[in-house]
Design brief:
The complex is a heterodimer of chains A (113) and B (111). Chain A is an all-beta fold and 113 residues long. In chain A, 0% of the residues lie in helices and 50% in strands. Chain A contains no helices and 11 strands. Chain B is globular and about 45 Å long.
Chain lengths: 113, 111
């Protein structure tokens, strides 16, 4: 069964460093998402991506964040200068269209020290 | 209150009992979805109910949707220890392409 894959599963980085979280969505899906979940809290929307551009973003997704789909298969989230409060689980998701179920990856646990 | 608030926040039951979780939301929606999350893992889609549907079943899951009250419930019948997880509702709002998640219910099923 097709699945969304995310790498790495765990990333530890120093405050101020740049990180890139990688995702391979399901191949025939058109909509891509990043969400984050701070430990024990709710799943928060960060950004949606369709037709090679950002379609929506939340207030969390400030200038420190960017997304790319560099080669038609990978979908990346970059955090330019990490802060302690960026420590969270980051989930990538994809879906074939709007108003359908979303398929989530297993997440990348980002720890900023 | 926020879009997609759930209650209870936590629920503990014995195996074989039914578990009911509720979700309230604030905006107009295309559909409402329920997801399950095992501790520290990804979200797994359980069931989707469209705004023009009132009830839907899938195995031991039963979902209801009341758009006039902007609320939904998830019933898990004959629960098992393996159902222990967090359960989230998520709404597909009108004129957006994103899912907004609720606060979640942590379900503990004791054998």
């Amino acid at each position: 069964e097709p699945e969304v894959t995310q790498t790495p599963s765990h990333q530890v980085t120093q405050m101020g460093q740049e990180v890139i979280l990688r995702c391979v969505p399901i191949s025939n899906h058109l909509y891509f998402y990043w969400y984050r979940q701070i430990l024990g809290q709710k799943v928060e929307f960060l950004v949606s991506f369709y037709n090679n551009e950002i379609s929506e973003k939340s207030e969390i997704f400030d200038d420190q964040f960017s997304v790319e789909r560099p080669d038609g298969s990978n979908f990346t989230l970059k955090i330019r200068s990490t802060k302690l409060e960026d420590s969270a689980m980051y989930f990538c998701a994809s879906r074939p269209g709007t108003v359908t179920e979303a398929f989530f990856g297993q997440g990348t646990r980002l720890t900023v020290v | 209150s926020q879009q997609g608030e759930e209650d209870p926040q936590a629920l503990s039951i014995q195996e074989g009992e039914n578990a009911t979780m509720n979700c309230s939301y604030k905006t107009s929606i295309n559909n409402l979805q329920w997801y399950r999350q095992n501790s520290g893992r990804g979200l797994v889609h359980l069931i989707l109910i469209r705004s023009n549907e009132r009830e839907k079943h899938s195995g031991r899951l039963r979902v209801t949707l009341d758009t006039s009250k902007k609320s939904s419930s998830l019933l898990i019948t004959a629960s098992r220890a393996a159902d222990t997880a967090s359960y989230f509702c998520a709404t597909d709002e009108w004129n957006t392409d994103k899912l907004i998640f609720g606060t979640g219910t942590r379900l503990q099923v004791f054998p």
